[in-house]
C-alpha cells in the first residue's frame, strides 16, 4: 500500500492542485463521455459513454429490469428469469426475460420465457417462482394481470422437458388458478408473487402469495392436491399489522447448527425419513419502504402456521434485512447441484429517471449469494458464490500494516473500478472506544450523522472505493466501534455515499447496520465487490451486507482509485488486505 500519513485524510484534497484543477478534470471527463472514449485497461467493462455499466454483475444490454423470477437449476443449467421492459429504461410492458448459465456468473440470453398472451396475463406477467413437481417437471406459478387489471395467479410448464434450456413455456388452460372473487375477499390489486410451493407429508402442496388487508401485510396460503386446483386456506401462513403490502414473499427451511448446506423447500415433505433440526425463514419485500425483511421462526406443518422467534417484521425498519442498502424483491432457490441455497436480488438505480432514460438502461442484479443460518440461530449469513472468484485476475496481497490515526493508504496494482477486495482488521482494545449514546438506536441514522469524515476513536476505518485521485469523490465503507451501555462492544457498519459523485441529483443516502461481532475477540473483516456503479459490501464474513449504487463523474474510465483508511484517533491494524481486478463476465 502506498501510504499517505496525513494528519487528516481530508488533507489529501490539498495535495492536489485545488478547486481549479478539480473543475478542469470534471469538464475533461464529461467531454470524454460525450466523445465516447472507452475504458482504460483491457478487463474493465466501461464502454462508449457508459461508465456505469457493470462488468460482472448481471444486466441485459439495455432497458429496464427489476425482480428476478423463477430461478432454478435444471439438468445442470441455471435459469434466471427477470422482469423486463422490452421497450425502454423505465418500468412497464413487463415480460419474463430469460437467461441461462452454467456458473451463475456468465449468462446466455434465451429470449422471453413468459409474456402476455392470454386473458389471464394480457396486461402483464409479474413475478413468480419455480417448483419441481414430483415427476421432476419445473412448474412456474406467476402473477398475471387480467383485462380488468386484477392480479391473478397462473401456471406455466415447459413445452419440451428434454430441452435443458427450457426455451418455450406452455400456459395451463385453466389459468388463472387463483383469483380474487367476491367470496374470498382478496384485494385484487394486492395479490401477487407466488413463492416456490412446498409439499407436506400429507402430499398436499402449499404456496403463499403476498397480500395485505388495510395495513396488515400477509402471506395468503393456498393448498392443492394436483398443483392445478388450488383452495385458499382459512388463515394466512403469517401476517403482521402495520407493515403494508408484502411483495415477493419467500419461505424456506434452513439447517440449525451453523451448517452451510441448503435444504430443498419441500424438505419437510413425504421424502424425509429422519427429523432434521430446521428452522424456517420468511422474507417479505415491504412495498412501503422497498426493503427486504426476514424473520427466522418455526413452521408447524400440521396447522400451517409460521411463528417468528422475534417478530422483526413488526419493527419494520429496525427488523433484520438481507441487505441494508439498495436491494429489493430478492428470491432464493435450492441448488441441488452444489447442495446450497442461493439468494438473488434486484438493485435499482439511485439516479434520476431522466438519467436512466439517457443511458438506456436501469437495474442490475447482485452477485448471487450463498445463504445459511448463523450458528447463533439468530440471523442469516450471506457470501458471494465461490464461482465469482474465477473472475479474479491480477491481484495484490499486503502484509499486516498499521493504519495510523487519520491515514489513507492507496491500494495500487488493481483495476479499482472493477475489483474484489478483502480487508481484515486486527483485534481492538475496546477500552478506547467511544460510548454509545442510548438514543443511537437507528444505525442508518447514525451512519448519516457520523459519515466517514466525522472523526471517532475506534473508527471510522475501512475502504474508500471508486475514489478520484484527489478524493473529491469516494464511497466510504467502514466500521465504527462503540462501547454499549452494558459495556459490550457495538459495531456499526456504514456505506457512506455522500461524496460518491459530484452529481448532486443522485440519491446519496448513507446506509448502515449494527453487526453482531465482538472485535475484541476476533478480527473484523470486510469484503467489497466494486463494479463501476455498484458497491456490494460484506461485513464480518457476511453477517451484514450493504449494497450501494453510485455514479462518480471523476472516478471512471480507468481513473478510479482504491484506498484503505482510518479516520479514528486510535491506530488499527489491517492484518490482511487482498485485492483483485475482476474480469468481465460474459452476459449477452
Ligand atoms: N414487481 C413485480 C411485482 C412485484 C414487484 C412487477 C416488486 O410482481 O410485486 O414488476 O418489485
UniProtKB/TrEMBL annotation:
InterPro entries: ConA-like_dom_sf, Fructan_Metab_Enzymes, Glyco_hydro_32, Glyco_hydro_32_C, Glyco_hydro_32_N, Glyco_hydro_beta-prop_sf. Its main location: other. Residues 1-18 form the signal peptide. CDD domains: GH32_Fruct1-like. It is found in: Vacuole. SUPFAM superfamilies: Arabinanase/levansucrase/invertase, Concanavalin A-like lectins/glucanases. Residues 387-581 form the Glycosyl hydrolase family 32 C-terminal domain. The keyword Hydrolase applies. The keyword Signal applies. It comes from Linum tenue. This is Uncharacterized protein. Residues 57-384 form the Glycosyl hydrolase family 32 N-terminal domain. GO terms for biological process: carbohydrate metabolic process. It comes from the Eukaryota. It catalyses: Hydrolysis of terminal non-reducing beta-D-fructofuranoside residues in beta-D-fructofuranosides. Keywords: Glycosidase, Hydrolase, Signal, Vacuole.
Amino acid at each position: 500500500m502506498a501510504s499517505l500519513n496525513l494528519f487528516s485524510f481530508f488533507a489529501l484534497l490539498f495535495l492536489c492542485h485545488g478547486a481549479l484543477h478539480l473543475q478542469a478534470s470534471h469538464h475533461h471527463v464529461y467531454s470524454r463521455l460525450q466523445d465516447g472514449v472507452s475504458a482504460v485497461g483491457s478487463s474493465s467493462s466501461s464502454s462508449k459513454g457508459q461508465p456505469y455499466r457493470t462488468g460482472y454483475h448481471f444486466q441485459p444490454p439495455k432497458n429496464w429490469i427489476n425482480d428476478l423470477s423463477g430461478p432454478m437449476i435444471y439438468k445442470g443449467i441455471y435459469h434466471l428469469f427477470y422482469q423486463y421492459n422490452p421497450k425502454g429504461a423505465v418500468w412497464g410492458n413487463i415480460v419474463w426475460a430469460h437467461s441461462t448459465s452454467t456458473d451463475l456468473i456468465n449468462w446466455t440470453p434465451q429470449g422471453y420465457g413468459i409474456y402476455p398472451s392470454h386473458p389471464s396475463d394480457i396486461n402483464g406477467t409479474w413475478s413468480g417462482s419455480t417448483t419441481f413437481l414430483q415427476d421432476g417437471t419445473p412448474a412456474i406459478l406467476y402473477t398475471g394481470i387480467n383485462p380488468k387489471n386484477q392480479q391473478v395467479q397462473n401456471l406455466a410448464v415447459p413445452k419440451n422437458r428434454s430441452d435443458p434450456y427450457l426455451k418455450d413455456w406452455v400456459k395451463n388452460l385453466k389459468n388463472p388458478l387463483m383469483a380474487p372473487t367476491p367470496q374470498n375477499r382478496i384485494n385484487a390489486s394486492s395479490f401477487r408473487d407466488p413463492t416456490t410451493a412446498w409439499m407436506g407429508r400429507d402430499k398436499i402442496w402449499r404456496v403463499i402469495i403476498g397480500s395485505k388487508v388495510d395495513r396488515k401485510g400477509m402471506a395468503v396460503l393456498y393448498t392443492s392436491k394436483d398443483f392445478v386446483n388450488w383452495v385458499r386456506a382459512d388463515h394466512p401462513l403469517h401476517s403482521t399489522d402495520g407493515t403494508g403490502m408484502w411483495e415477493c414473499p419467500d419461505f424456506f427451511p434452513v439447517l440449525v447448527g451453523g451448517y452451510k448446506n441448503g435444504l430443498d423447500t419441500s424438505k419437510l415433505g413425504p421424502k424425509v425419513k429422519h427429523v432434521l433440526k430446521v428452522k424456517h425463514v420468511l422474507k417479505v419485500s415491504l412495498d412501503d419502504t422497498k426493503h427486504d425483511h426476514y424473520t427466522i421462526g418455526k413452521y408447524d406443518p400440521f396447522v400451517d402456521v409460521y411463528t417468528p422467534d422475534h417478530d422483526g417484521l413488526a419493527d419494520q425498519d429496525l427488523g433484520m434485512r438481507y441487505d441494508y442498502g439498495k436491494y429489493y424483491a430478492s428470491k432464493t432457490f435450492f441448488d441441488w447441484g452444489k447442495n446450497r441455497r442461493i439468494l438473488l436480488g434486484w438493485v435499482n438505480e439511485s439516479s434520476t429517471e431522466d438519467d436512466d432514460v439517457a443511458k438506456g438502461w436501469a437495474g442490475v442484479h447482485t452477485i448471487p449469494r450463498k445463504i445459511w443460518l448463523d450458528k447463533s440461530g439468530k440471523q442469516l449469513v450471506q457470501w458471494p458464490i465461490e464461482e465469482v472468484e474465477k473472475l479474479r485476475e491480477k491481484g495484490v496481497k499486503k502484509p499486516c500494516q498499521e493504519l495510523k490515526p487519520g491515514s489513507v493508504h492507496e491500494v495500487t496494482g488493481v483495476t479499482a473500478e472493477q475489483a474484489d477486495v478483502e480487508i481484515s482488521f486486527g483485534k481492538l482494545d475496546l477500552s478506547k472506544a467511544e460510548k454509545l449514546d442510548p438514543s443511537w438506536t437507528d444505525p442508518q441514522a447514525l451512519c448519516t450523522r457520523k459519515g466517514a469524515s466525522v472523526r471517532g476513536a475506534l473508527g471510522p476505518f475501512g475502504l474508500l472505493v471508486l475514489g478520484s485521485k484527489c478524493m473529491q469523490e469516494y464511497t466510504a465503507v467502514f466500521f465504527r466501534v462503540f462501547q454499549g451501555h452494558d459495556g459490550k462492544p457495538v459495531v456499526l457498519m456504514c456505506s457512506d455515499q455522500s461524496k460518491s459523485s459530484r452529481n448532486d441529483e443522485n440519491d446519496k443516502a448513507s446506509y448502515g447496520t449494527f453487526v453482531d461481532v465482538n472485535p475484541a475477540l476476533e478480527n473484523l473483516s470486510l469484503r467489497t465487490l466494486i463494479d463501476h456503479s455498484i458497491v456490494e459490501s460484506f461485513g464480518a464474513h457476511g453477517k451484514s451486507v450493504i449494497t450501494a449504487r453510485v455514479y462518480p463523474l471523476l472516478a471512471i474510465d480507468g481513473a478510479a482509485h482504491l484506498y484503505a483508511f482510518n479516520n479514528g484517533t486510535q491506530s488499527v491494524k489491517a492484518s490482511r488486505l487482498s485485492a483483485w481486478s475482476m474480469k468481465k463476465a460474459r452476459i449477452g
